[in-house]
Amino acid sequence: KIRLEPPSLSLPDVLDCGFCLIHGTLRTQFRCVNKGGSAIFQLYPAGMVSDTFLFNDLPPPEFELKDSGFTVTPTSFALERNQEVILNVEFKPSQVSRVKAEFTIAANNCTSRNYTVTAEGESCAVKIIAVSGGDTVDYDIRSSDESNVVVNFEDQNPGTKEEKIFILRNCVNVPLHYNWEMCKILTEEGQQPESALLLRPDEISPFQISPANGILEPASETSFTISCHPLKPGKYDNTARLWVDDIPCLLPSGLVLEKYDAQHITLAHLAQPHKIRLEPPSLSLPDVLDCGFCLIHGTLRTQFRCVNKGGSAIFQLYPAGMVSDTFLFNDLPPPEFELKDSGFTVTPTSFALERNQEVILNVEFKPSQVSRVKAEFTIAANNCTSRNYTVTAEGESCAVKIIAVSGGDTVDYDIRSSDESNVVVNFEDQNPGTKEEKIFILRNCVNVPLHYNWEMCKILTEEGQQPESALLLRPDEISPFQISPANGILEPASETSFTISCHPLKPGKYDNTARLWVDDIPCLLPSGLVLEKYDAQHITLAHLAQPHKIRLEPPALIVPGESVVGYTVSKTVKIINESISSANVSWKYKTDGDVKFNIRPQTFTVGTGCSRTVEIDIETESPGDKEAHVQCYFENVEKPANLFVKAKFRGPRVTIDAGHEDPVLDFGYIHYRPGCVVQRQFDIVNQDGVEANWVLREMDHCINAEYGESEFQFAENSGTLGPYQIRHAHITFKPNFPRSLKSVIECSVENGTGSKIRVIGEIQEPNVVLKQSVIDLGVVFVGVPVTNVAFFESLNFADCDYVIRSAEGKDKAFGFIEFEEQSGMIYAGATQRIRFHFTGKEPAIIDDFTVAIEIGDNKVLALGIKAEVKGLYVVHETPDIDQVAPETNAEQMDQPNLDFGTVDILNPTTRVLKIINKSNIATHFQLEVEHFKGNHCAAPPISALGDMSTKSYRPVSHLLTKTNLLLDPSARSGKQNDAEYWKKQLSSNKGVCFTAIPASGYLPGNGVTIITITGNSDMWGTYTDTLVSRVGDLEEVRIPISMTVVNSPLYYKLSNNNKPTVRFGCYPLNEKPVSRTVQISNQGPEDIRLDWQTFNIVPKDSQLLDVNFFIGDAFPKKGQEESPSPNSKLIRLSVSPHDGRPATGPFSFDPDQVVIPGRGTAKVTLSFDPSCGVGECSGDYKSFALAYQSLDSHTDSKHCSRLQGEDVPQLKINMTGKVEVPEVVVTAEEHGFTFKLMAGMINSKVQEHTKIHKMSLLNSSKLHLGFSIAASLPFILLENKEGYSLIPRQKTKIDHGFVLSEGLLKVLLDSTRQNFKLDVDPVSGEYRESDEGAVEVIIEEKLLKQSHNVKQQDGTVAMVVQEVPETKFHLHSHIQLHYNNNHIQSIPVHARIILPSLYISPQSVDFGTCLVGQTSQVTVRLINPSNSPMRWYAQYTGETGEGEFSITPSSGEFMQADSCLLSISYTAKTNKICNGVYRFVSSPGKRAVELCLAGTGSHDERMQKLL
Q1: Residue 417 — φ and ψ, nearest 5°?
Q2: From residue 727, how far is each of 350, 421, 970 by CA, in Å?
Q3: What is the pLDDT of residue 333?
Q4: Greatest CA span in the chain, whole angstroms?
Q5: C-alpha span between 486 and 783 (Å, rounded)
């Protein structure tokens, strides 16, 4: 059976079609290449297979994937290897969402794979994000209602032109075709203008939008210019309508509009007619007089400086619209007036000013509610000109806000995101005496400074009232909480940090409220009273002071045992602090009394969760039980801890013969005679370190009452022993009559503990005894005599004779005893030795065997004999080869087994058999192998004798001497002798043999014989046999033998047979096949059939495992009908390491199936075909072939079984060969293959820039080479020739270049990905991002550290380091040489485009305090650190009413790395802080940096700066 290669489609798992507007159609194509085997493919929705059309002649119908809007074609196609097909995916979305669907591609070889197609439906949407232009910035639409965009132009005279710029964003990912239309609103009678919907085109509109039509790029922003050019006076109101074409907008009626009304902009302008008049007066008073802020019910007084810069006039002030002729420009000044009950009062109300004269206007503001108040008043001049002014101020109510609380070990919470009306600060549980702090930030929410002070209060909760509803507070003088600073001033609209500390002195739960009083607040009560202070904020403070948890371990100190009086007893006590904080500890105890204490250390500190050990010394002068109490005091703890101490003391202890628990004074045998005296000595020991008074005497009950006095006399019967002193006591014993002596001598101690000693002895008359009445001979063997000795001892001073009598007992029949001396003399006080011989008659255990010995005239001694009589006993062992020491202590426990394990073919392996004779009986042994016997007629060589203890080595001095091999041509080396020996041993052709050396011999008594069992094989398989051991007359022992033989008896007749390799060398492509012949020898007895399979090693092959699937006989014999073996498995699956890919070329074998006869040879031919091409190995083939081995004539038996085919390790041969494809040698000249360009080269004047390099092509081969060259844009070839032809050693030069264009730069700058591919749209010729592109783009972004000197405000110069972002675009592609033999040579090319960067020094400017109306200037430096040209311009955002900032120049250009100085000027308009930001934008790249500006105006002329 042939395993077909499965197909492999180069189609991604997810097919992303992009974006499409709803009710539209998106068509996308995907290129699908088959990189595997040939197959027919069918497409169908996942999980919806239809058997009616799958792989039949009719193609399946088109299908839509689960109502998702996707349609995929074609649905059926057939592909060979490397063929491709284009899949067309059509998407019609019906709603705004991302849609996914799955379909299945199935092949006719039963393989299938699921793919996901995805796209996103979008609805047309545009958005105006900013409008600016003219002298001022109107507003930023980002923060306003974009659904109602109104653009107001400044009032002008006819004939003038004003422009504004607005930015329109395309909010979808689809390009939109647009055009603008100016319309007039048709308002019906009685209808509000804002509800009008009817629009008609206005042909005479003064407004115009440029560009009027075009394309909005996907998800991008486009700038438009609105111009207003009225030709006649009048008020103009128009609406600019944005039409988006080709939008599939489905109406409820089912119709589809061709264009879509996407955006409206309301445009308004007033064109005033020209007026010619005399010079009117001009007051330098702003239109809006902002007085600032004031608390309600308070008073705010503000002054404004008014200068007349025009003609002379008399001015009158009056409320707008309330002119009174009775006082206008008469002699009487008009009365003071209040502007429409707004709380404003303006004075003076009448004044006259010449040119450049000034007056101070006083504005008084008294707010009554929280709101911003505006009022208008008119200043009229006597020349009938007037102007309205607006005065504004804001009334505020006192308000503060806690915005954050933190501190301690953890952050409690951030009030910004919590309920600030109920601020609760919880302190961590602590012990009394500890202090914890937290920090909170309080914000003054008004623009008025507030004087404050904090007060700690206790909540007074009425009975039955909930604590949270309690409002009654009283000051708490003993509160553990404190806020710092306690009083001060809260700056306007600023934040102030406070510290809350908690320091409890006693345990308990503390709940307080911190009240914030704000002083001098005009708070009007309903009664009309004004409070002096205001309750502004409450903070609930909670803390739990837990009592200290300190314990003593042990809680009571009980000294075990007894202590000696006068000694100091030292014990330790551990103080464990389980409290939250550390604790200070001190000890107190009584210094007088019977028991004295000494504690170290006396005072110390124990940390949190720590412990401390103290040492307590106890001492007393009198014995007995002692009890006392010691107090342990802890700081901030009311009650001390009591430590109960108990100990027992005793006096000194004196012992006799301290080396024994039960001392005995043994006088031994005493030969009694009248007046005999025996002396002994013993030691008295003081066991303690204090003196002891002692007395020695015999116990009264031990004294014989018949004699009335003690038989013992002491050399010293009392005295004093020093500390640990030892004294020798001498005692004399005078016995009164023969007996067994038993008495007790007592040593008593004053106020202490004494001891006693027993006295024993035997007072006897003359006597003879046996030293050992029973002799145990142990194990004896039948017929082997054992010699031993009996000892007689005379216990008196008289000689005695002895006579050996007969043996008695029930076991006397099992043995025989013979004494060397049957009779003799035992001398007084001496020991007599009598030797005897004992011989066992038959195996038995002898317990009752007694020999009678007559002593003297009337005494008989009995000598008992014990023995175990044994016969022949042998143990067989099969230890490892390194454990063959002749041990004789082993017992026959387990069945011996000769397991040779897994061995290689023709590798003799040795195992050891130990025969251990456990008896003292010598015998003979014989060994025999049952089945696989060797040819014993052959003499074994020295290496096969199995000598485990000796090895012979050739001396170093004889290394260069002649050997017998040189003198005798017929002589063999040791290796040849071994090979010849094993060849004869294996001549039976069974595949294996086992030999035992020695096979028979003599086994001594209590001896060990080591036999070497050697197994060798010339054929693989699993072998079992039995070794039969016969020892003496014992039953034979059968020892199983097992051995598994691996590897093959085949070998290649090559120079390096360990790693056989056939090297074919290097050949050109399409050369004729090359052959090599290899001879294979078979050392085994069986015919072996080989089936060849070749594999190629592919570089960078990521596969790890091969799954092999076999059905039936994997390698059947050719020309023979396949019939599976009844024992073989029909289907087999195996996993093997992946070493290479199966291949059909370029290597092949002839024949591919060959039989190697047993003990014979055969030849195979290896061929290398260069016409197969370079393939996946790039022409350098490192392959190998596996020969699967099969046995056609072998049948398994119970002693031998062999594997075949894929179950046997394959015979491997390596093959190398190289197919050379001639290529030209490409070298670069000058700048190489890397193009370095600056993005700033492209500007409005230069739309495209080409950089050219040269490269040379050399034909270094011996062949004629023909090829064509191609490059991918933006890389180009300047010579567009169809083909090139080079003869050997010919060289040519070609110009290649890189084109940097505005379109390429736009794609690079608009991309949001760091790594993407680029190609050119074949229709439009524009660059675009595509996964199939041939140019890879990598965007590199990094920060460059730039250092420069900055002048500080104090005049010093400091070095400042700024991090400037730098962006580089790396474009990688290949110039490809297409040869006539379809070979492609790729030359990598690279382009690096550097985007300009800029930074400013310094990054912020503070003008400080300047005189109002005076202009101050500073200079800053704008720097371009890159070598790229760059254009830049400045944009201002910030305040204009409080001051004016300007910059010179406001735009510029850098041609290279350079810098320029910018002049920044500031003119203060009011006495308030003015902030602004200049944003410098570079092009190309739109990279921006900001310069922060700040300045403060002042009317103090001391702030005037001298120029």
Answers
A1: -110, 15
A2: 134, 93, 94
A3: 54
A4: 183
A5: 117
Q: CA torsion, points 572, 577, 578, 581, in degrees to nearest 10?
A: -170
Q: Which amino acid, 540?
A: T
Do 493 and 396 contact (CB within 8 A), yes or no?
no
**Cα gap 308→662, rounded to integer Å:** 132
As a whole number of angstroms, the distance between CA 1080 and CA 1064 comes to 19
| Residue pair 791/691 in contact by the 8 Å Cβ criterion | no
DSSP letter for each residue of 437-498? EEEEEEEE-SSS-EEEEEEEEEEEPPTT--GGG--EEEE-TT-SEEEES-EEEEPTT-EEEE
Residue pointed to by tokens 């008695």: 808
Residue 190's CB is within 10 A of a number of other CB atoms, namely 5
Distance CA 1365, CA 1396 (A): 10
Nearest of 1317, 1384, 1100, 1332 to residue 32 by alpha carbon: 1332
Outline where DSSP puts E strands in 1032-1140: 1037-1046, 1050-1052, 1061-1068, 1074-1082, 1088-1096, 1105-1111, 1131-1137
Closest CA to 244 of 176, 182, 183, 169: 176
Dump the DSSP string for 293-315. Answer: EEETTS-EEEEEEEEB-SS-EEE
Segments of the chain with pLDDT less than 50: 52-53, 135-140, 142-144, 189, 194-196, 326-327, 409-411, 416-418, 470, 888, 946-967, 1506-1507
Residue pair 444/397 in contact by the 8 Å Cβ criterion = no
| Residue pair 991/1044 in contact by the 8 Å Cβ criterion | no
Q: How far, in Å, are 455, 528, 592, 619, 623 from residue 565 at the CA level?
A: 66, 92, 17, 8, 6
**β 1225-1229/1248-1258 pair status:** antiparallel
| Cα distances (Å, whole numbers) of residue 908 to 905, 985, 1016, 1024 | 8, 11, 5, 16
Residue 1407 and residue 928: Cα distance in Å, rounded? 116
Say which amino acid occupies 944. A
pLDDT for the residue numbered 640: 86
Q: Would you state the pLDDT for residue 724?
A: 85
CA atoms within 13 A on the CB side of 607: 1
Angstrom distance (rounded) from CA 801 to CA 823: 7
Q: Is the pTM of this model over 0.85?
A: no
1439, amino acid identity: E
Other C-beta atoms closer than 10 Å to the C-beta of 315 total 23
Report the 10 Å Cβ neighbour count for 23.
Answer: 16
Continuous segment of H or E residues that includes residue 1302:
helix 1302-1310
Q: ∠1152-1158-1164 over CA atoms, to 5°?
A: 25
Number of Cβ atoms within 10 Å of the Cβ of 1177 = 21
- β-strand partners of 1108: 1134
Q: How many residues can be counted in the chain?
A: 1507
Contact 1101, 1138 (CB under 8 A): yes
pLDDT at residue 418, as a whole number: 46
Q: Report the DSSP beta bridge partners of residue 972.
A: none
Residue 804 CB coordination number (10 Å): 20
Buried/exposed code over 3-20 (b: 16+ C-beta within 10 A; e: otherwise): eeeebebebeeebebebb
Cβ proximity of 1276 and 1297 under 8 Å: yes
450-460/550-553 β-pairing: unpaired
Distance, first Cα to last Cα, the chain = 104
Please provide residue 1177's backbone torsions phi and psi, each rounded to the nearest 5 degrees: -95, 10
Closest CA to 1045 of 920, 849, 1216, 903: 903
Instruction: Give the DSSP letter string of 1197-1226.
Output: -SSEE---BTTSPPEEEEEEEEEE---PEE
Cα separation of 365 and 360, whole Å? 16
